[in-house]
Amino acid sequence: MHKALFALCLAGAASLVSPAPASAQSEKGDLTVTGSKWGEAVAAASAAAARQDENPNTYDTRALRLESSWGRVRILCGVDGLVVGTTGVFKSANVEKIVAGSARAETEAKLFRASHRPGALATAVGALTLGVGVIAATNNANSAATPMLMIAGAGGIFWGARQLNTAYKSLSRSIWWYNRDLPR
Question: Which of 103, 89, 52 is nearest to 167 (CA)?
Fold first, then answer.
């Protein structure tokens, strides 16, 4: 139903843009647009939607993508965007299970898992250590430990951030390899 509505909206938009008249014809419940430059696009979209309905294991229904927001990454599947996993600083999805079936994608998913946890832990411990060092410095503690805490904390944050960056690169490559191996 929503595909037919989309085709109808596209036909209406085409009639506003194109000087040639667009007419909608019903053939077997499918909308096609004729007489405009958008007619071919609507027909192709309708044909692709019909093929997708026939086989649920197409690229459009199984391809993965990433969306991030405020330190949280969601792994979405298909055109509809079904959430199949989320990962954040302290939580990670079982990406190996999500990309099962593609050997190269599983390898990258293992690299993600190997880098994500140490990176998150080092970043958290580094932030805590840096915070303790800053608090000690504001309390006028004249000890050698204060700058050492701050340097160690900044180093932990830096190393952890590098690990997290490596992990998310591996996650992105894992998704890419999985999508590459899907049947078209």
Answer: 89
Q: For the whole prediction, is pTM greater than 0.70?
A: no
CA atoms within 13 A on the CB side of 167: 25
User: pLDDT tens for residues 12-41?
Assistant: 444 444 444 444 444 444 444 455 555 665
What is the 3-state secondary structure of the chain? CHHHHHHHHHHHHHHHHCCCCCEEEEECCEEEEECCCCHHHHHHHHHHHHHHHHCCCCHHHHCEEEEEECCEEEEEECCCCEEEEEECCCCCCCHHHHCCCCHHHHHHHHHHHHHHHHHHHHHHHHHHHHHHHHHHHHCCCCCCHHHHHHHHHHHHHHHHHHHHHHHHHHHHHHHHHHHHCCCC
Q: What is the pLDDT of residues 125-151, one digit of tens each?
A: 999 999 999 998 888 767 888 889 999
Cα(97)–Cα(107) distance, rounded to whole angstroms?
11
